[in-house]
Design brief:
alpha/beta; 13 helices; about 40% helix; PI-PLC_domain; PLCXD1/2/3
């Protein structure tokens, strides 16, 4: 019987270079019209158990964490961890959208930046960017989208430092935002990294930074409610370029109290069979109800990555000689 470790190894072997194996008919389609697997809160696999609660959390959470750390901290960890695979393992598994929530620790005199989800990570942002670069160098035809978000506690000086690190590490692998990101174009130019950045001032100063990528976050505790939300967003119409449909459930205080022995992982794993059905019904492309990036929690489970990649088989690009009307009906 195949165990979890063997399953992950097999999955990594299959999906580590999936972009390079796409049929040539998809090489001229912009990445925002393809189906791309993503991980929600990518870096929570290395949250620091001894970390203070982040500066972004409510005063009540900070107070309870200080007064009853032995009770509150384990609860925080159970509901904050959304991934168990490392960033390299996620990339090997086929993930091509990374959700980075970046923060600077309060009262930390250094320039070190960390990732955050209620508490801070043990690793720094700079170390992870180098790790991604090392992976890209051994996968020259794969492209990764990095969404830099939240920026808890970042000053103007720290933003300058972060952008300088991104540019120093990735250099010519960074794709400028004026490039139409088709695989053929990116391969020809040697670009492998698209960085979206949720800070307008920095965005205006650096052509290597892309605008924030919209994230459809349902903020739901039930799978049925989440799917209803995602279908409502589809009816309103997809954004023109990159966007994320988040299939991640979100706990609230009431849910935690009703499920004292629960965790985000249990909550997620129960929902995956139903979300799998929804994923398989989706279709990538430029039309109103099409999807682009689908991001989830615990991405190593239930063939999530494989199911998203396989949606690209539904794309039928028009032949050059087809009329405009033919284009409209081609997908």
């Amino acid at each position: 019987m195949e165990g979890p470790l063997q399953t992950i190894v097999h999955m990594c072997h299959e999906n580590g270079q999936w972009m390079s194996r796409l049929p040539e008919k998809l090489w001229d389609i912009p990445l925002y019209n393809l189906a791309l697997p993503g991980s929600h809160d990518t870096m929570t696999y290395c949250l620091d158990k001894s970390s203070a609660v982040s500066g972004n959390e409510s005063k009540l959470v900070k107070f309870l964490s200080k007064c009853m750390p032995c009770i509150v901290h384990p609860i925080i960890m159970k509901w904050s961890i959304t991934q168990v695979l490392t960033v390299t393992e996620q990339l090997e598994a086929g993930v091509r959208y990374l959700d980075f929530r970046i923060a600077h620790k309060a009262n930390d005199p250094s320039m070190n930046l960390y990732f955050v989800h209620m508490v801070y990570t043990t690793v720094t942002v700079q170390d992870i960017l180098w790790e991604i670069l090392r992976w890209l160098e051994t996968h020259p035809q794969e492209v990764v989208i990095i969404a830099c978000r939240n920026f808890d506690g970042l000053t103007k000086r720290l933003h300058n430092h972060l952008v300088a690190c991104i540019k120093e590490i990735f250099q010519c692998k960074l794709c400028p935002r004026n490039v139409v990101p088709t695989l053929r174009t990116l391969w020809r130019l040697g670009h492998q990294v698209i960085v979206s950045y949720e800070e307008e001032v920095e965005l205006g100063k650096h052509c290597e930074l892309w605008p924030p990528i919209p994230y459809w976050w349902g903020n739901k505790t039930s799978t049925r409610a989440l799917i209803r939300y995602l279908e409502r967003m589809k009816r309103m119409g997809r954004p023109e370029k990159f966007f994320v449909a988040g299939i991640n459930l979100t706990e609230n205080l009431r849910y935690i109290l009703v499920h004292p022995f629960g965790s985000l992982k249990k909550m997620t794993l129960q929902s995956l069979p139903f979300l799998k059905i929804w994923i398989k019904q989706q279709r990538p492309g430029p039309k109103k109800k099409c999807i682009n990036i689908i991001a989830g929690d615990f991405i190593g489970n239930n063939d999530f990555v494989k199911d998203v990649i396989e949606l690209n088989t539904k794309i039928n690009p028009p032949l050059p000689c087809q009329s405009r009307e033919g284009e409209t009906n081609s997908i």
